[in-house]
Design a protein that fits this description.
By secondary structure, the chain is α+β, with helices and mostly antiparallel strands. It folds into 2 domains: 2-69, no CATH class; 73-216, no CATH class. Helices cover 26% and strands 43% of the residues. Strands 4, 5, 6, 7, 9, 10 and 13 form a 7-stranded antiparallel β-sheet that branches. A 5-stranded antiparallel β-sheet has the order 8-3-11-12-14, with no helix packed on it. It has a two-stranded antiparallel ribbon with strand order 1-2. A hairpin with a 2-residue loop joins strand 5 and strand 6 (111-117). The longest helix has 30 residues, at 40-69. The protein starts with a helix and ends with a strand.
Length: 217
């Protein structure tokens, strides 16, 4: 990525030099006392075109780098298999940045997913009338300062001790749900990935989970 940055800097300098050269030829039709042009207009136009193309390329590369470095993408996938006689409602972990919440407002037939936020809690509310999978991908610029995920926490001295807080309610007290949840937050050279699989029962509980994987380039 540093090499691309140098290339962008070189293109800006190269383009500015040729634009300057073209302007000098247009105004003086020569460079100093020794270099004269038989066709100054053609030489000037060529220099201006080459300079403009180089500067445009530099602007394009710089814009691409800025967008890539300041864009955060979120991937949220939740899948449930319901074993029970009634629909279930689950309170699940959710991204902490509110700019992701609108993207997590989705429906599939009579099942739905959305984010609820209160003064004390933020969670993804999943209403499942049967087996369902929701998969959401969203991104925006600039990157958020908040890349936290609610309802997951390190619980012990070891980094591997993590829990996810899950609530489930249903008219069928014996209902169980096989839950798979994946949350990814990726920003340029930093990525977080949360993965969780468990059998969920009616009530509120802390479920052990794998620690988040962190990718730094």
């Amino acid at each position: 990525m540093l090499t691309v940055g140098y290339l962008s800097f070189f293109l800006f300098g190269f383009g500015a030099l040729f634009i300057f050269l073209g302007l000098v030829i247009l105004t003086k039709r020569r460079l100093g006392n020794y270099v004269r042009f038989r066709k100054p207009m053609a030489a000037a136009v060529t220099a201006l075109v080459v300079g403009s193309v180089a500067v445009s390329a530099g602007v394009g590369i710089t814009t691409f780098l800025w967008t890539e470095q300041t864009t955060t993408s979120m991937y949220y996938r939740v899948a449930v298999q319901v074993n029970g006689t009634s629909p279930v409602i689950l309170h699940l972990p959710a991204p902490g940045d509110p700019r992701f919440w609108n993207a997590l407002s989705v429906t599939d037939s009579t099942s739905s997913l959305r984010v609820n936020h209160t003064l004390t809690d933020t969670y993804a509310l999943l209403h499942a009338t049967g087996n369902v999978t929701f998969e959401v991908l969203s991104s925006f610029t600039p990157s958020p300062s908040n890349q936290s995920v609610s309802r997951v926490a390190q619980t012990g001295d070891s980094y591997r001790d993590w829990n996810a807080s899950i609530d489930m309610s249903s008219a069928d007290p014996g209902a169980i749900v096989a839950l798979t949840l994946e949350i990814r937050l990726d920003n340029y050279c930093y990525g977080l990935r949360y993965q969780f699989m468990a059998i969920i029962h009616v009530g509120s509980a802390q479920y052990p989970m794998e620690p988040p994987s962190i990718v730094v380039c």
